[in-house]
């Protein structure tokens, strides 16, 4: 069995949804298809939820009506027969009745999660109506019936495996299953989600749970590129990456793949293919256990980074100092991306302001704390890249003249990272594209 995930742009228009139907029925392989919400829907739902949280019910009503109008227009193009249109209308009526009812309910975080789940619930149900009209047999597997996370928001793969297996076994002989990405249930049994971009994560978790033959991630770009094509004019798709290389790229900013989506596939050694819905004939990128040669493969950039520097003369030769620093971040469940140390200071980076005030308050007793916002981590990724002297030379020749805030070298053999002010991000990506790949 294969797992195929299609993102919001892949199902964002009726004709694209029809193209997805053609792709998944091109062969007779058994498969689970994971769908995101239609492009723009999750953002619209976030805005509705935000309006409700601020007590702006009239504004929320306008936003709901606008989204409903979009879906009704969408379905006019998606299905043409009377039976299909009646089914699609009933689905839209049901979900937007819920969104209108919540205008009368006190807002809370649980309700927010229910609101955000509507996009995937809508896209999968409407897709199944479209398949039915086309005469394609398919079974909808509700993700809320099998996808779950524990109290630490970690996926419960053993439970997912049992529940999903039981659901599939109820439909022996069925070749095609449809389910939602992103959404799940939490430890309380409430509707929750795997955070933004979580449909990739869903696909990887499902692939791990069923021991899939392969996991396919279908987007609107032909595989992982060597650089950000939105910033750099000339880029190229990478044929093959190892799990380690892909994980580094995803974590440090490559938008095509959700950072958490690598480890379930890697743990069970399931190949992951990155493919283009708009160009299904394109080779794309395959991610496997083994690397394909050494050297720089790609550059990724992660924005919104906060650099924190703790300076203290007491740090000199003081064992336990770093442990105490790290315990502050552990207490607030805030991951650290980069770290450098000297005799009197430690600099590190985080990518979230969620608990920043509390963290800074608890760091104050250790020394002088300096803060830099709007930083960008630029990572050069490739097998053994940190052990290849020629790449180090090319890297520093290329970035001559760009002010560096931090350098991380040696923490991973597959990654060299530098921290620059966000205003130098584009220039850094461009000069590295020329210096490392010879592309202007």
Topology, number of strands: 16
Question: Which CATH class of the largest domain applies here?
Answer: Alpha Beta
Fraction of residues in H or I helices: 25-40%
User: What is the H-and-E element order?
Assistant: EHEHHHHHEHEEEHEEHHEEEHEEHEHEEH
The value of Rg in angstroms is 24 Å
Indicate the structural class: alpha/beta
Domain Aspartate/glutamate/uridylate kinase: 2-276
Catalytic activity: L-aspartate + ATP = 4-phospho-L-aspartate + ADP
GO molecular function: aspartate kinase activity; ATP binding
GO biological process, one term: lysine biosynthetic process via diaminopimelate
Brief characterization of the structure:
The chain is α/β, with parallel strands linked by helices and 440 residues long. It is built from 14 helices and 16 strands. The longest helix is centred in the N-terminal third of the chain and has 22 residues, at 57-78.
